Structure formats: C-alpha cells, structure tokens
Amino acid sequence: MLEALVAGGAEGLVLVRDSAACEGRSLLRAFVSAAVQRAERVLVVLFEVPREQFEAGLSPSVKQRLLYRDGFTDPLAWMGPDPDLRAGDFGELLAGGLPPGGPLTLVLDSLSWLLLRLPPPHLCQALGALLGGPPNSARPPRLLALLHGDLHPPALLRALGALASTQLTLGGAPPATPGAPRLASVLSRPRRGGVSQKDESFTLLPDGSLCSLGVPPPAPEEGSPPPAAPTLGSSGDSGGRVPPLTFRLRLSAAERAARAAVTPPYQLSPPRRSTLLQTPGTIVCTPEPPEDEDPEDPDDDLDV
Amino acid sequence: MAAVPAAGGVARGRGVTSFQRKAAAGSRLAAVAGTRPSVRHGQLLLSSGLPSLDCVLGGGVAVGTLLLIEEDKYGLYSNLLYKYFLAEGVVCGHDLFVASAKEHPDNILKELPAPLLDDTHRNELGEEATAVKSEDFQDSMKIAWRYQNLPKMEASPTTSTKFGHYYDVSKTMSPELFQSIKCHSFYLPEELSLQAKMKTCNMNSAYTRLLESIHRIIYQEGFDGSDPQKKQKNILRIGIQSLGSMLWGDDICSSDTPEDVHSLTKFLYVLRGLLRKSLSACIITVPAHLIQNKAIMERVTNLSDTVVGLESFIGSERETNPLYKDYHGLVHVHQIPRLNSLICDVSDTKDLAFRLKRKLFTIETVLIEGSNTKDVFHFNLAKEQMNIALLSN
Amino acid sequence: MFAELNELLDASPQRPERGKFTLLRDTRTDGSFLVHHFLSFYLRAGCKVCFVALLQSFSHYNIVAQKLGISLTAAKERGQLVFLEGLKSCLDLLFAEEEEQSGHPSPLQFISESTSNLKALFDFVRTSLTPADSDSWKGPVLLVDDLSVLLSLGAAPVAVLDFIHYCRVVVCSQLKGNIVVLVHSNEDSEDEENELVVNSLCHHSDLILWVEGLATGFCKDVHGQIKIIRRVSLELTAEQDLVQIYQYKIQDKNVTFFARGLSAAVL
Q1: Distance from CA of B198 to the nearest CA of C (A)
Q2: What is the reported pLDDT for B134?
Q3: In a domain, A94, yes or no
Q4: In terms of DSSP H, where are the helices of chain B?
Q5: Distance (Å, rounded) from C-alpha B318 to C-alpha B327?
Q6: Does residue B204 contact residue B253 with C-beta atoms inside 8 Å?
Q7: Does residue C168 contact residue C21 with C-beta atoms inside 8 Å?
Q8: Rg of the Cα trace of chain C?
Q9: CA of A241: which chain B residue's CA is closest?
Q10: A interface mutation test: which of B135, B373, B392, B393 has the most A CBs within 10 A?
Q11: Per the record, where are the segments of Pro residues compositional bias (chain A) (predicted)?
Q12: Regions of chain C where pLDDT drops below 50
C-alpha cells in the first residue's frame, strides 16, 4: 500500500509522523522523487531546514525540478524587512498564492514548526480550506506535511489525524544496522470511503526512491542463528542483542513422534500393576542415628 | 588564590596536607576570619555551623555560593540548620543579613543557639562519649577523619577563629556576643510599605524588594570589593527563611498551576549573580514539600549550588522502623557544586541520617544495628564493585 | 580538550568540522565537563568563539580552562573569544542607574521587558560572530551553557526555539560555523517546557552527546555513561543514526573514557 501511495495514490492531506529517533524526512524525499518522475510540479515550503539539507541525497535531475518557498531564513523578519516567506503568511500562501496550472504536490517541512508558533485552529482552517473546495473545481493539490510526534500533546495529534486523509507513522525501534528495513504504520481514508490500516516495512534506496517490503516479518524465532556478536569498540553497538543459546527449545516432527512413543513411568500396564499389587508390602522403619550435636555456638566466634 | 594560613593555627585532620597553592596574579586575599581555603579548588570555605554537614559537603560552604535546604515537613530541623548558619556567623565575627516573612529578624537572633566554647565543650563531649557506646563516637571520628578539623580549645572567649563549632540548642546565645556584629535585617511586612526602586521585571514585589535590599547592603558595606580602602575584609552571611511560601506573596505552594511560575527562579538567578561577585554566602530554606509543580523544584535545583533535603521521621511510618530508631530523619544531598574544577567532592556514602541527641545535631551514615564500621566499609566497597560489575551486560 | 573524547568523536583541532550543530544533554548528572572540552577544543582550533555563559562566572571557566591548557583572558584580549557572562549582564540590567546605560541594549533584556522574544540575544550573537575584514579566524562557533536557564528566566519555549533557529540560520547555514548547546533533561521530568525544547533540538542536531548518571547510583570509579549519537540520517537518505555508548571517569585535568564494564577498577 505504501508504494501505491508514493506512486500517486495519496490525495489531500498526508501526514508523515516521525520522532527524533526515527526521522521522516527521507520518506518525504521519496514522495518528492516519485512525483517528479511522474512529471508533476512540486512546491517545497521550508521552515525547519535549509534547502541544502532538504535536498541532500536527491538526484540532480530531481533537484532542479523542485520549486521552493524559503521560510527558513527569516520567518520572523528579525534580519531584514522583506523575507521570502513569513510564518504568518503561510495561510495566504495556501489560500491564493499557489502557482497555477497542473497537478501540484505541496510539501511542508514542517507542520510542527508552524503548530508551535501559530494557533492550531487557524492553521487547520487554512488547511481545511485547501482540502475542501467546490466539487467541480480542479483537483486540489496534495499536501505532504512532516509532523514531529514527540513535540505535541496527544490530543493535538489525534485532532490532526482526523483532518488527514492518510497518516504514515514511522515507528518501531530504530534499526540496528544501516540499510535495515524500517517500519511504518499506514492509515488511509480515501475519498471514496473506507478505512484501511496496515503496518509495512520498507527501505530507501540510495537514489531516494522507496522499496516496499510488504508486511514486516514476525519477530525472529528463538534458536535461529543470531548475528555475530559485536567486537569491542565497534560502532553500531546498541546493546540488547540476544546471546547465542546452548540449547534448542523446539522439537522437530520426528523427535515429537519419538517422545510420544515413550510410555511415561506413572502409566502402569495391567501386568505390571497386578505384580505390584500382589507383592506383600511391609513398611520397614529404621531410625536415624542420633544427632551429633556440637556444644559450641558458632556465633561465639564473632567479635561483636 | 593567596596562600591563606589556616585561621587560628588549628591542627589539621590527618588527611589534609600542608600544601598551599601559589597566589594567582592580582588576587591577594587577606586572611578572613572564620574561613579556610579548600584543598581541592582553592576557594574559601565557610562553616555551615554543623561540622558534620561541613564534612558531608566536602569541607564547608564555599564563599559566593548558595546553600538551599529543602524543608522537612514541619520545618523544625531546617529552621535549626538556618539558625546554626547564622550562629556560626556571629561566632566568627561575620556580618549577618537575616530575611524572613514569618518572624521578625530580631526574634530570630534572640533564639540563636549558644556556642559551646572553652572547657564546657570538652565536658560536653566527654559526657557524650561515656553516655553512649564509645564505638559510636569512635565511628563518627572514623568517617570524618579525612575532612573534619576537630575543634581545639581556644583562649579567647568571645570571637573564635576556629573552623566549625558546636552549639547547644537548649541555650540561647548571650547578647554580648552580638555586640561587635553588624546585623542587617529584612522583615517583609515592614518593607512592603516602602517603594521599590529597581525595575520590577515581572517579578514578585517581595522578591524585588529583597534583592534590592541585599544589593544595597553588599554595595554600601563594600562586600563586592568596590571599596579598596577597607582594610579588614569580612564575609556577609545571608539567611532567607521559607522562600517561596505564601507569606512571600508567591502562590507556588498553594496552587498546581500558579500564576507566576518564574518569580522564584528569576530571584535565584539574580541572587546567584550577587553572590558570585561578593564575599558572601547564603542559606535559603524552601518548603519544597508544599510546591506542587515539580518542574519549579527542578529549575530551582539547577540554579542553586548546594542542595540538601531534610526528611524527618515525625508522623511517618519510619518512626517505628527499628533500623532508624536512633535517628530523627534522613539527609538527602541532591547536588554539590563543581567550582573552578571538573570534579566535585561527592562523599562516598549516600545513606545519611541525622539525629538531635541531647544538645548536639549530628549527621551520620546509617549504621545497621549489630554491625561495626568495618563491615559497613566493606559493604560500601562491595556495593561499588557491584555497581561496576552490573554495568557490563 | 580531552584527547580520548577527540578520538571517540574522530575530531581533531587541526580540521574542525563546519556547519554542525552539537547538542549536549545531561540526565541525573552534570555535563558541564563537555562544555569545557568544546571550549578549549575550538579555541585551540583557531575558531572565533562566542560563549554565552549563563550559569557560572568567567573566573570559573577560566580556571578550568587553564587546567586544560588554554587561557581565556588571553583569548579575549586577542579577540578570539567573545564572552557573555549572563550573571553579570543580568545584574547590570536590573541594578544599573538610568544614566549609566550605554547605547547598546542588553542581550538579556527580555528579563525586564515585556517583549518575550530573544532577538536582542540573537543580535548580540550575530554581531559577535560576523567576521570583520581583519579577522583571520577559522569559522565561528557559538557555545551556550546552558539553554534551560533561559526558560527559568521567563522566556517561553517557543522563544528559545526561535533564538536557536536564527542562530542555526546565521551560524550554521550562512557562516558555516558550529553551534554547541547544553541542556538538562530528565526522563521522568515534569518540566514540559524543557522537554519540548530538548526534543525539538534533537531533531536538528548533527551530533548528540547524552551524559547520564548511573542508574545503580554513585560509583567512585565510573562517574557516568555517555551516549554518542551521530545523526547520519539527516544528511544521507538511506543511512541510520550511529549510536555508541561509553562510560567515563572525571579526573582533575582529564576525563577518561572506556567501554562499558571495563573500568580500570574492575580490570
């Protein structure tokens, strides 16, 4: 489902929720690369990072096709009278300032930055005005917004989730080795109706595109060979790796059958039972030898 | 720091060497009564009035720092520490600045405990030694041997030049000891009628007035070195009682969401600036158990130098716990400052308890009944090795 | 400057990095030894340093820096170090008489005025680090000790974040310099404003040095644990952050680092 969304299936407001441990900007870049491949226009509104950092890792052909509005350099007009984009002007940008013509993908980096500085209801009204629109107008642009989940109270995150048509929450533990698959939880409410939620794992290729690995495999079984134990001082040691076990916890089918074939000792066959019952049983009691008491008290050795 | 000879020729504890640091360029400090330089960082140290607390804090309270005491539930023992600090100032000949919103400073000064000087001290200690098991006394010497100067007898009856004195809580200080001492006082109900002169900067008006008063005293009396004519340098000991309580006009004790969260922290920051640039030290007691918003206490701790919390056993279930039957409460050392150095004097043991036995207030390591110090030492050493061993997965 | 920490970070004063934001975090312990390290490191590297020291006095940093082989007074005199002593500046702001105030507004004027933004502090940083023509220093560096104090003085968390934002714009992006900031944090802290600032800064940092006191309590030979997080994911698309954990012991003039469980006391 993730690949379908990246390939153009997403519509309306798409929230990419990340945290400091699992960053989500790389997923935004994947969307951007795919949109450029489809010859769509992409407008990137930057508040949080400079342009060089946002386009790090994108191929040059993608880079030159991107349009930018720079809200990073001087959003509060501290350094000069006329910055490119002010924080307060974002509403107007959404309302009427978008470049006309053709399908547009709007990328917002990041929504969290705006939420901390503008009142959330006003911001959401501007977003809502963008997503709605009269039914016979051109298809509204797709808005991809990066949201840092660890900076806002849960109530606000839920309220924003109710506005979004798609939410991609990056989660799971950060992968131990570079290049390992990452986990995303996809919640999609397409316009035509219905809700679908799925956990998917994916990797990002070096050119920025996404490669979905489908549903993540369940946790590895015990007894499967673990990765080699790290040497001292090696990088990437995040601790918590399972040490190699010296026993197996699972039985193969043959072993299970062999175990079932053995009679347990408490289960008596009739001949054996009759033998036991017939033997006259006597109880023999031999008293134990008298206790060897030591008159000394070991506590006396303590010099307290 | 100049090489300051130990005041009064006191014999040092066995662990303290006689090494003295060379003078730094330009800073020459004449010997100030009642202080001694720290071995570790060359700062001047004052006694807090309790020799066992000095030992826990690594020698004493450094000049220019703030000692914050988190009050126990009924305020009994924190009030005692407050008075010990001021009494030590009287005995050493320092100037005092007494601030309170609750009691008039003159009443506080009348109730300061009397110091144990001359031969009465030796008799007192001798009584203690025979009354309790001799091992206890030996033990307190053993724990403290590295830092503590055992006070020796001095000839002068009034001002003493030793470091660290013992006080008798059952007697009050005689008025003749006060004669040569300059006491400045700040009693909030009297000050509120006057007009504040400095910028309020959105701070509680009581705190604003207190800061103004402290600044004025420091400047006028020359504690910040602004008066080079002054030959004899002296220390200003500032004591502020129950800061943050409702009597100071602050609502952080009464409300979970106080209106003004920043007044107390701003006050502490400005006070820190005043202390750092003058020859003074300050003790503040704060009713931390009443402050609902724990974020404020975290910020207060970060802005203070030394933070000690007292927990008394009155009314709690620990009163009947046999482990604590000889003690009246616990001492929690939350923070010790790192001054002019990367390291600080953290004491090895963290299980400290205090007791007010007869007339002496002591702070000791909690000793488990039936064990001797050798076992406790080995127990602590084993605990540390266990700490190290536990860290490797 | 601690040689072992330089090895762990793969840093050297001869080739200081450019355009990096380093976050120093401490939990249950005091992480100021890292501030002393970076101060002496960048001074030795020949960078121009603007040090916003909010918590301690100048003499404290000077005495420790002398133990590490650097003289802050000399650095100030030759113009390499611009030192803002927060305590002194705050006193000047509050207690100065009207006629004594100079033309420059105080960098900490947000304390006394109703404007809640830190623009004055940012202007101070910008004028200190913008290179003059006669300067020959290698790259500007901003060092802040510590940011949590600004919250205690009444600044809103968003105001602090705006200040850091603008510092990143000018120092990291435009001047290609470095920023090092110390913050306090606790896992179960109730100070939500502080947690907001710390989490937000984590998103922008290229390197996070997280110093924690031991969970098992005080130990004489191991003073704490340091987690070094290199946020490679900010730069390259397919990479993940590298996390390394070491333990340390602070001595009078040096700090030694070792792998977990291998303190010299145990071996």
Answers
A1: 6
A2: 38
A3: yes
A4: 51-56, 76-92, 105-110, 118-131, 134-144, 188-191, 205-220, 263-276, 294-303, 373-391
A5: 10
A6: no
A7: yes
A8: 19
A9: B393
A10: B393
A11: 215-229
A12: 99
DSSP 8-state secondary structure symbol assigned to residue B247: G
pLDDT higher than threshold 90 for residue A162: no
For residues B7-11, average pLDDT:
38
Q: Is the CB of A178 less than 8 angstroms away from the CB of C166? A: no
Cα–Cα dist C222/C220, whole Å: 6
Query: What percent of chain B has pLDDT above 90?
Result: 34
Evaluated on CA atoms A264, A266, A271, A275, the torsion sign reads positive
> Hey, are the CB atoms on A74 and C238 less than 8 Å from each other?
no
Q: What is the pLDDT of residue A151?
A: 93
B295:C265 CB<8 A: no
Give the Cα separation of A84 and A51 in Å (integer).
13
Type and span of the H or E element at C209: strand C207-212
- Weakest mean pLDDT among A219-228, A287-296, C160-169: A219-228
- Would residue A263 count as lying in a domain? no
Contacting residues of C for B269, CB less than 8 Å apart: 87, 90, 149, 152-153
What is the average pLDDT across B65-71? 96
Hey, which of B192-196, B281-285, C215-219 has the most confident mean pLDDT?
Answer: B281-285
The pLDDT of residue B230 is 66
Cβ–Cβ below 8 Å for C90 and B270: yes
Please give the pLDDT value at position C227.
93
Q: Which of C57, C90, C260 sits opposite B392 (nearest CB)?
A: C260
Whether A304 contacts chain B with CB within 8 A:
yes
Please name the residue of chain C whose CA is at the shortest distance from the CA of residue A18: C203
Q: Which of these ranges, A41-55, B86-100, B321-335, has the smallest mean pLDDT?
A: B321-335
Q: How many CB atoms lie within 10 A of CB C118?
A: 26
CA–CA dist C255, C31 (Å, integer): 12
Residues of C in contact with A55 (CB under 8 A): none
Q: In this model, does residue A295 exceed pLDDT 70?
A: yes
Query: Which residues are CB-contacts of B29 (< 8 A; sequence separation ≥ 6)?
Result: B1, B2, B4, B44, B233
| Residue A103 forms part of a structural domain | yes
Question: Which residues of C are less than 8 Å from B210 in CB distance?
Answer: none
Longest dimension (CA), chain C: 65
Asked if the peptide bond before residue C146 counts as cis, ω within 30 degrees of 0, the response is: yes
* In the predicted structure, residue B147 carries a pLDDT above the cut 50: no
Omega of the bond leading into C57 within 30 degrees of 0 (cis):
no
pLDDT at site A210: 75
Tell me which fold the domain C17-210 belongs to: Rossmann fold (3.40.50)
| Amino acid B137: pLDDT | 41
Residue A165 CB neighbour total at 10 angstroms: 18
- What gap in Å lies between CA A173 and CA A171, rounded to an integer? 6
Res A267: pLDDT: 80
ipTM higher than threshold 0.95: no
Q: Is residue A181 domain-resident?
A: no
Asked if B382 is an interface residue toward chain C (Cβ–Cβ < 8 A), one would say no
Residues in chain B: 393
Nearest to C184 by CA among C217, C228, C149: C149
Identify the CATH number of the domain in which residue A142 sits: 3.40.50.300
Beta bridge partners of A212: A202
Which fold, B63-136+167-391?
Rossmann fold (3.40.50)
**Distance (Å, rounded) from C-alpha B345 to C-alpha B336?**
7
Is there a contact between B370 and A304 if contact means CB atoms under 8 Å apart?
yes
Nearest to C52 by CA among C126, C158, C113: C126
For C30, the closest chain B residue by CA position comes to B338
- What pTM value is reported for the model? 0.80
Structural domain containing residue A147: 12-171
Which chain C residues in 48-87 lie under 8 Å from chain B, judged by CB atoms? Answer: 57, 59-60, 63-64, 67, 87
